[in-house]
Amino acid sequence: MSVHPATGPYRQGPADGLRGRAAVLRERAERLRGASAGLDWKGPQADAFRARVEELAARCAVAAEGLALSADQLDGPAGRR
Question: Is 64:23 a contact under the CB 8 Å cutoff?
Answer without folding.
Answer: yes
